[in-house]
Amino acid sequence: MQEHMREKLSRLERYAPRLVETHVILKKEKYRYEAEMTLLAKNLRAYGEGQSKENIYTAIDQAYSRVEKQLKKFRERLKDHHKGRPEKSFAKPVLAGRQNPEAGMAVKTRPSIVKSSSFAAKPMSVEEASMQLELSENPFLVFLNASTKKANVLYKRNDGNHGLIEPKF
């Protein structure tokens, strides 16, 4: 059984070559076998489980196929499929203002803060931040630069490249 697991786990290394940790839990409950498999890689956590009434090997194969499917999907996301597509156009910002009924002109007022959020900036390299930005739908990413230990902003440019803002304090 251990040899079967080692063989299955060695096959998964072609999808995630830098596996950090692997947990496999095998259970037998009355007339049912269960297998749970958790893989931890650098930017990925994959989980799969399988159940079988016949034998434990079938449950292991089910868990393996679920984890393998997640790893394949992760690898597809890493590939750049956006080369030939036209760039999305972003809406132009509109100034906040109110209408002056006497003059018929817009009077500029201070914009209000609509949404506020806080998060823990993860220390990462600029290349890793670029990969995270590609996977994200957001137009920018705030991160802690691992080499300078300062907050940086990486944003998507209209030409398809990324721009980096390094503030000087």
Kindly list the characteristics that best describe this protein:
169 residues; alpha+beta; Double Stranded RNA Binding Domain; 9 strands
Account of the protein in words:
The protein is of the alpha+beta class and 169 residues long. The chain folds into two domains: 2-78, Ribosome hibernation promotion factor-like (Double Stranded RNA Binding Domain), CATH 3.30.160.100; 119-169, SHC Adaptor Protein. Helix content is 26%, strand content 32%. It has three helices and nine strands; from the N terminus they run H-E-E-E-H-E-E-E-H-E-E-E. The protein has a four-stranded mixed beta sheet. It has a three-stranded antiparallel beta sheet with strand order 1-2-3, with helices on one face. A hairpin with a 2-residue loop joins strand 1 and strand 2 (32-41). The radius of gyration is 25 Å and the shape is elongated. The termini are far apart. The mean pLDDT is 78.
